[in-house]
Amino acid sequence: MAGTNKSMETTGSPILYPLGCLLIGAAVGTLAWSAQGDFSGWLSYLERDLADKLRRLRAPTHNLHRYVVIWLSATAANFAIFWLVLESPVFALLLSVFLLCGPWYLLRRMAQRRRQKIEDQLADAMVMLANAVRAGLSLAQSMDVLAAQCPSPINHEFRQIVGEYNMGKPLEQTLQEARTRLRSENFALFAAAMMASHESGGRLNEIVERIALAVLEMQRLERKVQAETAQARKSAVYMAIAPVMILLVYYFVDQESTMRLFTEPMGHLILAAAVVLDVVAYLWARVLLSPDI
To answer: Which fold has domain 113-226?
Structure first.
């Protein structure tokens, strides 16, 4: 009887294994086919979001679809290698999430830094525009002065406005497109003042000077807040680096126990949880230390 059971197990296992793989493959294929529309919509949304950030950075977007496909393919390959080859599904999922979110976060940070530079340069540009208008120049000529004499990156925006206006596009439309592209409240006030003066006349230099004074006062408050929270922001960076340093110390103190974090599934889970909590704590600290004035 035992021999019969043993023979059934040996003959049945070669059939059950490929049958199970076939069923799993069919389930994955069915799921992928049913989610095809959702994936296409998500991919289109991702490309639109990345294209918007690249346009704000004045970077080319004509090869964006190719780069997105390469990016997603590399993420999928990383997931397959860590799960199937290295047999670490936790690390596979964790690294795939970081590979998906990392480039998007870097582009977002770069766009925010460029917008902040434009915000810092906008008050001086307003004063320069008011002086040019007071000297008797027209609004278009004053914009030419800003495009020629303002520092980077705000001069690129004024050059685009002047170039589009010289090609025949209405000034209101160029300013509206620039306001949408920059997403700056201060530039929105600046553009509104210029459009009002262009449509109905008025003393543009006085209006712009008042806006410039308000922007300078706001920048002064922002710099004061940044100066008072500088030490706390450094502490957030040190807090994020501390777990890595502690892990290195434990490696030299107890190498065998530390390596179990990288070789056993429970260790993978503990490391993944520690990394996620560390990243969340750092981002949370950045949000708390960056108040909106």
So the answer is: Receptor-associated Protein (1.20.81)
The secondary structure of 84-117, three-state, reads HHCCCHHHHHHHHHHHHHHHHHHHHHHHHHHHHH
Sorted by where each begins, the domain ranges of the chain are 2-111, 113-226, 229-288
Rounded Cα distance, 51 and 44, in Å: 10
From the list 275, 219, 286, 281, the residue with the least C-alpha distance to 244 is: 275
Residue pair 281/289 in contact (Cβ under 8 Å)? The answer is no
Write out pLDDT tens, residues 189-202.
778 777 777 666 66
Give per-residue pLDDT as tens, 51-77: 777 777 777 778 777 887 788 888 888
Structure tokens at 200: 């109905």
Query: How many angstroms separate the CA atoms of 231 and 217, rounded?
Result: 23
pTM: 0.67
Which tokens sit at 29? Answer: 């294929």
Task: Please give the structure tokens belonging to residue 167.
Answer: 């090609």
Strand spans (E) along the chain? none
